[in-house]
Amino acid sequence: MTIMEMTKGTLRDGEPHPQGVDAFAYVKRRLFEMYPREIFLLRESMASCSIEGNRTAEVCGETLDRILSGQVVSDRYVLGLAWFMRLMDEERILQRERDRIEDVFKKHVPPHALSLEDGVWLKRLLNKAFQHEG
C-alpha cells in the first residue's frame, strides 16, 4: 500500500474540499429555484435510471434524497451532485437554443430546394438566429 505524500494540495483526513461549500450552496439554490413538481420529476427520473443500473443516478439520487431530508452528506457526494445538476442545466439551455433555432427555420426556411440566393439568405438568417437577443 502506498502512503500519499502530504503536500499543500493534499486534503487532510476530515478536511472538506474547499469548493464543497460552494457546491452545496449551488445545489440548495437550484433546489430552491425548482418547483416541487420539478424536484419530484428529478427524483423519479433518478430512481428510474437507478433501477436500470445507472451508477450516476444511484449515487446522485441518494445524495439528493439525503440533502432533502436534512442528513449529513460528504463533500464528495455534494460535488458530484452539483456537477450533475450543472450539466443538466447546460443541456436544458442548449435544448432551448436548438428549439429556438428550429422555430426560426420552420417560420422562415422555404420547404423547397435552396437556390444560391436562398443560401445567402439562409446564412444571414442563421447569423441572426445565433446572435443573443437583448
List the main descriptive attributes of the protein structure presented here:
mainly alpha; 134 residues; 69% helix
Written overview of the protein:
- The chain starts with 19 loop residues before the first helix and ends with a helix.
- It has helices at residues 20-33, 36-51, 55-68, 75-108, 116-130.
- It is elongated, with a radius of gyration of 22 Å.
- The mean pLDDT is 86.
- The protein has one domain (20-130).
- With 134 residues, the protein is mainly α.
- Helix content is 69%, strand content 0%.
- It is built from five helices and no strands.
Report helical residue fraction: 55-70%
User: Rough shape?
Assistant: elongated
Strand fraction band? under 5%
Mean pLDDT: 86
Helix count? 5
Number of domains: 1
- Main sheet overview: none
| pLDDT < 50 stretches | none
Please trace the helix and strand order, writing H or E for each element: HHHHH
- Pairing-aware structural class of the strands and helices? mainly alpha
Gap between N and C termini: 58 Å
Determine Rg (CA atoms, Å): 22 Å
| Number of distinct beta strands | 0
